[in-house]
Every structure is written in structure tokens, then in C-alpha cells.
Amino acid sequence: MTHPVEEAPRSSAARDWVHLLVGSAFGLSLGLLLWHLRAPIEDADVQRYREVRDYVETRYVREIERGALLDSALSGMVRSLDPYSRYYGPAEVAAIERETSGHYRGIGVVFAMPYDQARILFALPGSPADKAGLRCGDQIVRVAGREVAGMGPGELRALLGAQDRADVPVVVQGRDGLERTLEIGQEALIDPSVRHARILEPELGLGYLAISSFSQETAAEFDRALEGLSAKGMRALIVDVRGNLGGVLQAATRIANRFLDGGLIVSYEGREESRRYEADPEEAKWPGLPLVVLVDGESASASEVFAAALQEHRAAVVVGSPTYGKGMVQQVKSFGEGEMIVKLINAYYYTPSHRNIERTVDGAWSHGLMPDVRVDLGDSELRRVRAFLASFSPPDAVLDELGAWEASEGRELYPRQPIDPQLAAALQLFRGVRPGAVARDAK
């Protein structure tokens, strides 16, 4: 016995399944056809790259690694956009991450010149080298049984800073000629960006420090340095950003905020977003502190943000020579598994008075900020000042040891503060003398 009423739904369902399968097959075929039609259009640039790459690989006079060709092509594409945008391949990523994060892996030592002698100038306080007992004048002789004398440039640093290595035996020879074997670990260390913090003139309570770059750690370093100077009687401050090419924008704004209890610090405007950085009164730890900022032609980007905010809010006197003039904000993005990085300009930044100091835009000035007190340096003065600023000041605890070592060798082992007319002008301001003026009792 049949049941027509019940059979109808089964036939309808079967037809629906057939229609579904046919429709799906047609849709898939149509999609594949459209993809093949579009592919030559959308991938023309990729195909062109492959054609040129294959030609270079097969016909160039020597073998070229395919990865190197890709890095070169990407680097050229990004570099062509403007003077600042950059592509960094795997070999450069570690340096960029160190620059922006403010961290590196190592044992924490500063080597004396010449570097190929592997002699320790001093260990950073609290570092693995310090904990292991490395001392001023120690010469690293062997690492894990390998003779340091036969290593190429940078090989020793790479070995000591190898990622996630275990403690390694290091044989050192002290200044007394005796050898010692130390087990030295490694860890993530702060790459110091705040340097040379000291009291210049105790009677004035005049503190000084230099910021070599702005990393994610710089604001915390700055706070620690100022707390130390305050404990030594600081009542005024010179902040030196000469030769500081910039870095992390937020670090510069946070440090500027230390001296500003309100108002706009900087704003930036791009195609996709705009942002304003306003001073937070709770972050203003030293508002009203007498302040001078030293700048020069290599003070750029975040350094100019910092100096401009303080200058335009009348929170500091800016002394030195005109700054570089970089008013572009760079965004850093990683690609792949983090083995590639692109720095791309995505906005212009503006000072509190809404001035863009970027010198490459139409109608721009030939420089960035103009200092309130202009003092230019000669070439030889500039070289000596920048060499000092790029160096590290030894901790107070090792100064006696370094002095004995210098006396035994009859030479200076680390740079001292050179003759510096720009710093001298800042000192004159705090003494109440207009820079460049002749004192009445001078003869």
C-alpha cells in the first residue's frame, strides 16, 4: 500500500538536495572562474616581482639568496615613501626592538677602548656581571672554553648575549695578572637612555642629566635619576637632549608632563586618527622647577616634542642650536612571526601652538625649533660633546678603582665633560648672567 501524502515530501526533499548540489557546484565553478579572471589583475605586481626575481637569480654573476632579494625589494618600496619610513629585515629586528623597548639581553658591562681587548671598564650595578664579581680592569680571556683573542668583531658580545643561554664559565685575568673563573648568567637588562646624572654646582643645587633616546623605559629611568638628584640637593635642572634622534613619543610626553601641571603637550593628526596629549596634573612631579633644555641639530622628533612643549608653556629655557625639524609620527608594525618590522609615517605632530616643525613640507622652515638662547658649536667642539653624551658615566662606587687603573696606564679610560659653550651658557643663566655678556668685573 502506498501513501501518496507521505511520498510527496520525500520527492520534494530529494529534488531540493539535487538543486542544492547543482547550485553549489555552479557557484563554486563561477567563483573559481572569477578568481582566475581577477588573479592576473590583482597579482600583476606580485607576478612582475617574481619575473624579475627569477631573472636575477638565474642570470646574475653570482648567487643571491632569495630572502635577501625580498628584503631589498621591501626596503626599497618603503624607503621611497619619505626620508623616514623604513623596512627592517630579520637581521635588524633585534636592534630595533632594543631601541624601542629599552631592553637587551646580556651580562651588563661597559668595555674599555680598544674594545677588541675585552677589558671591563665597569659592570652595571645589579647586572649579572656585577653579581658574578667582574671588576674594573678584568680582561675576558675565555668563554665556555673558547679563546676570546681569536674572535671576530661582535662575536664576544653575541656569545654573551645569546638568547636564553645557561650560565657560562668565563675566565678573566685581573689587573694583578691572576686568572679567575666565574659563572656568569644573563638576563633582560635596561639599556640606559638617561645618562651622566650628577650635580654640577652644589651651591646652586644645579642638577644635570642627558637623555640619549626615548624608549619605553626612559620615563622610569628619568624619575629614578631625578629622585637621586633631589636627594643630593637638586633645586634646578639641565636636561640635555642634544644628539637625541627621538624614539617613543609617549616617553617624551610623560617626561614633559613631569614639569607641566596642565595644558596640551602635543597633538598628532593623520589620515585615520588624531590624538591630543594633555598634561595630567597628577603626573606633574616637578612643576615650577627652574629648567633649561639643551638642543642641537640632531635633536629630532620626540626630542623636539619634549623641548617644544616646555618652551611654548614657558616651563623651560631652550639653549643650543636649531633642532632637526622632524614633525612626523612613525608607527611600528611587525609582520610574519615578528621577523620583519616596518616603520611608517602615519601622522604629523603639532606643538601646543599647533605648529608642525617638519622641515620637508611645503613652506616649512629649514630647521625645527629655534632655541631661546642660540649658541652654536664648532666642528671639533661638537664631536667631543657628542662623544661624551654617547658614553656612560661610571657609578660612584668604581671611581677610585678607575682612577688607580688610569694612573697605572697613564691615560683616560672614559670621556670627561669636554669644553662645552652650550652647557656654559646654561650655567650662566642659572648664575643670573646673560649668556654672551661680559661680567662687569671682568678684565
Can you describe what's shown?
The protein is an alpha+beta fold and 443 residues long. Among the domains are: 103-190, PDZ domain (Pdz3 Domain, Roll), CATH 2.30.42.10; 194-377 and 420-430, Alpha-Beta Complex (2-enoyl-CoA Hydratase, Chain A, domain 1), CATH 3.90.226.10. It contains twelve helices and 19 strands. A six-stranded mixed sheet has the order 10-11-12-15-16-19, sandwiched between helices. Strands 1, 13, 14, 17 and 18 form a five-stranded antiparallel sheet that branches. A four-stranded antiparallel sheet has the order 6-5-7-8. Strand 11, helix 7 and strand 12 form a beta-alpha-beta unit. Helix 7 (218-231) runs parallel beside helix 8 (249-257). The longest helix has 39 residues, at 4-42. It is globular. The model is unreliable at 1-30 and 437-443 (pLDDT under 50).
How helix-rich are the residues, as a percent range? 25-40%
- CA-based gyration radius: 30 Å
- CATH class descriptor of the domain at 194-377 and 420-430: Alpha Beta
CATH homologous superfamily designation of the domain at 194-377 and 420-430: 2-enoyl-CoA Hydratase, Chain A, domain 1
Count of β-strands:
19
Shape annotation: globular
